[in-house]
Write a structure and sequence with these properties.
The chain has about 120 residues and is an all-alpha fold. Helix content is about 85%, strand content about 0%. About 5% of the residues have low confidence.
């Protein structure tokens, strides 16, 4: 091999190695989102799970996690939309079904309390 070929091959290998070091991995976003949620950092969790959905829009787990985060933030319309997307993608998933059922029960309680406050 001539010197030019060796230099080009070396640069190509270096470029591939550097690209691998900074490669974006969606599972990392999911992990960071879970860690943020466990610390009560809901905005950060939302950011991470939205990024996950950019690369994997058909992830029922990411939609479910995002729904939980929106629910914790009090954004019930967005939460319900995300739960519905998660259930569309995985209708048999008992974990998502359970989360959605609890969400609806909590939402009904909140609405009843608001109605009671309005009557006073």
């Amino acid at each position: 091999m001539n010197t030019k070929t060796v230099v080009l091959m070396s640069l190509l290998i270096l470029l591939l190695l550097l690209t691998g070091c900074v490669m974006y991995l969606p599972q990392d976003e999911v992990k960071f989102g879970i860690e943020a949620a466990q610390k009560g950092l809901w905005d950060e969790a939302i950011f991470r799970w939205e990024r996950t959905l950019q690369s994997n829009p058909n992830s029922p787990a990411a939609h479910n996690n995002l729904a939980v985060a929106y629910e914790k933030k009090g954004d019930f319309d967005k939460a319900e939309n995300e739960y519905k997307k998660a259930l569309e993608l995985s209708p048999e998933n008992e974990y998502i079904q359970s989360n959605y059922k609890k969400f609806k029960e909590n939402l009904n309680k909140i609405e009843k309390n608001e109605n009671k406050d309005e009557k006073k």
